[in-house]
Amino acid sequence: MSAIRALAAIWLLLGAVPSLHGSTVRVGSKAFTESYVLAEIAVRALESQGIDAAHRPGMGGTIILWQALRSGGIDAYPDYTGTISEQILRGSRPLTTAEMREALADHGVAMTDPLGFDNTYALVMPRIRAQRLGIRKISDLAAHPDLQVGLTHEFVERRDGWRPLAARYGLEIQNVRGLEHAIAYPALVRGELDLMDAYSTDAKLAELDLVALDDDLDFFPRYEAVFLYRLDLDPAAASALESLAGTLDEARMIRLNAAAEQTHDYAAAADLYFGTDSRSETRAATIARRIAGWTLRHLQLVAVSLGLAILIGVPLGIRAARPGALSQFVLGAVGVIYTIPSLALLAMLAAVPLLGISGRTAIVALFLYSLLPIVRNTAAGLRAIPPELRESAAALGLEPRAQLRRVLLPLAMPTILAGIKTSAVINIATATLAALIGVGGLGEPILSGLNLNDPSLILQGAVPAGLLALLVQLGFDRVERWLVPRGLRIELSGAGPWGAGSR
Q: Strands 109-111 and 225-230: what pairing?
């Protein structure tokens, strides 16, 4: 029965995470400037109709956003017709708008009319470098197999990406690396790269004097910007998104992208689109409000996942303290989980139907990462109790459960608390990755700062996360003084393999 209660508690705690959104229309975005800007415009359009809306920024690539839309993790996001046809619907030929709408409807998804611009993929080079090598079109690259190329990871794997493009053009370039745009653009300027993929509406093409190579074999389809949204979305919200169709041409989109990158503020670009400035707060007040919101969300993720880890980890540690094969299995299992790369774990959990792209996924991932220090330290603390103390507890006539509760756990408490503290600190750092699936927290400004190459924005996430870790350390020190009798306190540096002095 206790196991059933524990599982029920877990599900209730997990269910509390998405409830933060309520009836809010959640607009997702991919991890590049234009997608952020379009999502902010959508949020502003929804709010202008009295609809509560929120932006879940930088959720990753196409498939992550698509899965989140289908599963209900988000309600809408901006995409492009070429991507929808090639990457989502995977048609054997470019699909018409009517064909796309029909196919999307089978998935419970609708598509707006095009917003008014074509943001095609392009291969770009520094203009001086292209002129020196005599490269004007993609087919010219065949004569230069030694070029250094940096491509986004999604572009490398897309059906309309690098591999089929190289096959079409007969390219045999070997020096190809996976790099996100925020890293590739500076590398291109420094001369560390010769070629990268880009978007035709990216303001950096003009800013950095880059030239887009002519797609002389017409490999890329048209990428008309649209919004995808759930068919069950409130009609008023759907109408607000549909109203954006035909309102953006290529030149205007480039200006909005430039404004976002110059101001390091996607909301400012949305202001420019609407011709207003809705910001009544000072910049300092705005930053403070945003940091407070990110921190609150971060604390929620950490608190729920750590609470679950304590609830499950301490009993597992108690079981692992006993001799036998089962104990070795428990310790081995939590150890193996800890070795799984965080990004891989998030991806695997996102594929689970009951989780998907949601706060539940982040909570479960953080919970799993938190188990190892708690389980090991609980087991180590109990195993370290001298036999004579165990015998004394038995001599008092206490039942085994009473021995555990009244004698053994208090004696092991310093070591257990050291494990919980270590787990909490690790949890705070790891929770920044939750922003990769758009569930917020202090990782959100870090990802945005990387995208905009803005160190100050990165610090808005990194500094509060560091302060949280420090406060948690101090908080657990106070908890130890409160829970552990003075005579049982030990230096945490000697509190087992996961103590403060361990690595």
A: antiparallel
The total number of structural domains that make up the chain: 3
Angle among Cα 23, 24, 29 to the nearest 5 degrees reads 140
Name the token pair of 314: 């301490």
Report the SS3 class of residue 67.
Answer: helix
CA distance 503 to 498: 7
Q: Which of 212, 245, 272 is the last residue of a domain?
A: 212
According to the model, what pLDDT value does residue 407 have?
Answer: 78
Query: What CATH code is carried by the domain that includes residue 80?
Result: 3.40.190.10
What's the CA gap between 260 and 438, in Å, rounded? 20
Contacts of 18 (CB under 8 A, 6+ apart): 358, 359, 360
Residue positions counted in the chain: 503
* pLDDT, mean of each 10-residue run, the chain (503 residues): 47 46 82 91 94 86 87 92 91 85 96 94 94 96 95 88 94 91 88 93 90 94 95 95 95 91 82 72 68 88 93 92 88 89 80 75 90 93 83 72 79 88 91 80 81 77 90 82 61 43 37
Give the residue from 305, 472, 499 showing the smallest Cα distance to 418: 499
Helices (H) then strands (E): counts for the chain? 22, 10
Residue 366 belongs to a domain = yes
Continuous segment of H or E residues that includes residue 381: helix 359-383
Q: What are phi and psi of 413, to 5 degrees?
A: -55, -40
Residues whose CB is less than 8 angstroms from the CB of residue 408 and which lie 6 or more positions away in sequence, other chains included: 382, 385, 390, 393
For 215, other C-beta atoms within 10 Å of its C-beta total 18
Rounded Cα–Cα distance for residues 224 and 78 (Å): 10
pLDDT at residue 488, rounded to an integer: 53
Residue 448 and residue 325 share a domain: yes
Query: Where among 232, 248, 280 does a domain terminate?
Result: 280
- Phi/psi of residue 304, nearest 5 degrees: -65, -45
Residues in CB range of 208: below 8 A, 6 or more apart: 126, 185, 188, 189
Give the pLDDT confidence score for residue 490 in this predicted structure: 47
At residue 232, the pLDDT reads: 94
103 near 84, Cβ under 8 Å?
Answer: no
- Determine the 3-state secondary structure of 78 from DSSP: strand
* Helical residues (DSSP H) of 351-454, grouped into ranges: 359-383, 387-395, 400-403, 409-430, 443-452
Which sign, positive or negative, has the C-alpha torsion 379, 384, 389, 394? positive
The alpha carbon dihedral of 187, 193, 199, 202 has a sign of: positive
pLDDT of residue 68: 86
List the domain range (segments joined by +) for residue 131: 121-212
| Strand pairing report for 109-111 and 149-151 | unpaired
- For residue 12, tell me if it sits in a domain: no
pLDDT number for residue 400: 75
